[in-house]
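Work Package 4 report. The design task specified in the project plan requires that, given a folded chain encoded as structure tokens, an amino acid be chosen for each position. We show below one input record used in the internal validation round.
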């Protein structure tokens, strides 16, 4: 007897009328039209059953702090960093934990079951680190939270920056972070990349750096990150986040750079909602979009994922933990409007994001975790178009969240009364 059998599901790869059988928290069969006795059977009625959404780039320590102690007037990255600096002395562990747990509730309801969060290690107290480790412990039964040691004020620029980052790793933070473009000079930025990659090699840890989050076409720390990855044999466990300077770079240089990134096995994460709002702020017109070259990187075989980055914090006043909103924005900013391009944007917030995070057990395949999301949509493109309701969310066979289908009852003059699913399709 199976624990759960879902029938008539559509899968993101285009297969329809699929049954997914679950036993002991794992997927034991995926096949067309399978019928078998189960404690629970659910007819998906042709709707999309997707692997969970994964966010490979977030800031859980800053989330839901919008307006504390004031809002970002210029809308720039640098004012956001300054504003976070004003907020830091006012933080308490309790408030950080409470806001993060609230966000994780939102995330689960949106089918977002894995988040890689950078956590600021600049302050010697490591207060945000302790708070996020506590959050990680508390959400572990329902959400995979990975933490990145992120030296927000610069690992070399801020006093004690490197020691504080190492202490954060000693406490159990999972990934080595960095912010080379915020170090004092280009050469110090490059030195920080070398130092941090060497630390990761020594400790056997992955690397995920904020890298070249700038409109400066000469911000080329990604080149150093790719080089150090190869030199130290870190292929497959290094990610470059943002890479926005690539938007502004000279095409000739990029024609050399992208193959170097592909060769090094470094993955890339774009953060469309944040890149489109923080970058190009010093431009008049034409105003740059600021997102990295997503289709070109994908075309070269680089794993590219999309992250949410911020929700209601010093850098971004909106957001709700909805990775379909992130995919929707990424699709528009990158002009990935072909059928294949739109599907790639869905992959960027599911399978590619899981790959960047090095997650095990992700995907609707035999032997993987029975973690998935039933969407009120028929395929990935419709899911993005409608930012579809997450009707049901399971993790390892356990139902975590149920949302009612979106619908409206219409009473229109000259038309018969009708109930329509919203948006109408
Ligand atoms: Fe970030």
């Amino acid at each position: 007897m199976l624990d759960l059998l879902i029938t008539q599901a559509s899968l993101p790869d285009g297969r329809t009328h699929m049954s997914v059988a679950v036993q002991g928290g794992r997927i034991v069969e995926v096949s067309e039209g399978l019928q078998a006795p189960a404690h629970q059977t659910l007819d998906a009625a042709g709707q999309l059953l997707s692997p969970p959404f994964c966010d490979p780039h977030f800031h859980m320590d800053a989330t839901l702090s919008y307006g504390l102690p004031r809002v970002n007037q210029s809308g720039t990255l640098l004012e956001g960093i300054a504003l976070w600096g004003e907020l830091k002395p006012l933080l308490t562990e309790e408030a950080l934990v409470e806001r993060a747990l609230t966000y994780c509730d939102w995330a689960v309801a949106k089918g977002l079951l894995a988040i890689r969060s950078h956590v600021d290690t600049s302050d010697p107290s490591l207060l945000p680190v302790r708070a996020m480790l506590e959050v990680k412990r508390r959400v572990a039964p329902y959400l995979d939270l990975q933490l990145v040691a992120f030296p927000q004020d610069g690992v070399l620029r801020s006093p004690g920056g490197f020691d504080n980052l190492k202490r954060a790793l000693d406490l159990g933070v999972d990934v080595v972070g960095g912010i080379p473009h915020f170090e004092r000079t280009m050469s110090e930025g490059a030195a920080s990349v070398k130092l941090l990659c060497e630390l990761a090699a020594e400790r056997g840890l992955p690397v995920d750096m904020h890298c070249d989050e700038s409109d400066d076409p000469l911000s080329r720390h990604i080149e150093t990150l790719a080089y150090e990855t190869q030199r130290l044999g870190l292929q497959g466990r290094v990610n470059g986040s943002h890479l926005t300077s690539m938007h502004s770079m000279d095409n000739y240089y990029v024609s050399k750079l992208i193959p170097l990134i592909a060769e090094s096995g470094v993955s890339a994460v774009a953060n469309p909602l944040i890149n489109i709002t923080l970058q190009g702020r010093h431009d008049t017109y034409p105003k740059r979009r600021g997102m990295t070259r997503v289709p070109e990187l994908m075309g070269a075989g680089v794993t590219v994922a999309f992250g949410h980055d911020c929700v209601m914090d010093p850098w971004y006043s909106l957001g709700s933990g909805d990775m379909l909103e992130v995919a929707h924005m990424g699709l528009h900013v990158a002009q990935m409007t072909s059928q294949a391009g739109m599907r790639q944007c869905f992959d960027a917030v599911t399978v590619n994001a899981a790959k960047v995070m090095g997650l095990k057990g992700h995907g609707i395949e035999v032997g993987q975790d029975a973690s998935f999301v039933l969407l009120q949509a028929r395929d990935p493109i419709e899911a993005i178009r409608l930012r579809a309701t997450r009707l049901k969310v399971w993790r390892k066979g356990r139902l975590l969240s149920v949302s009612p289908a979106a619908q409206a009852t219409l009473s229109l003059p000259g038309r018969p009364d009708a109930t329509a699913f919203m948006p109408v399709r």
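The chain has two domains: 2-51+363-409, 53-357. Validation will be extended to a larger panel in the next phase.
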